[in-house]
Amino acid sequence: MDMGARKYAYEFELAQWEEQFTDTDDNEMIDGEMYWRIPLRPYGDDQFVFDDLDAINRYLKDNFEDAGHNNSYEAAVKELQGLEPYTELEAWQFPVDAFHSKYMEE
What we know:
By secondary structure, the protein is of the alpha+beta class.
């Protein structure tokens, strides 16, 4: 396989691998963007809520009765942290060390 085809195949596999990382709205996560990490829940993986008033409210409405009706970002964050006490805001970085492709250059 020539270098151009090898590079294309590698980038295609990487793009497919990155698609598995989605936030609570099922949107593909964006490298470098801020997300609220909801720590490992029983029988599942960590969840990530995009750092946005509407996204936080949707998460709260979907997971807690009578929650997620906030009009301000600060109120939404306070409610989120009250209901999910181990939640932290962090910049998302793809765990590229976990990615492996048979097309990686040696």
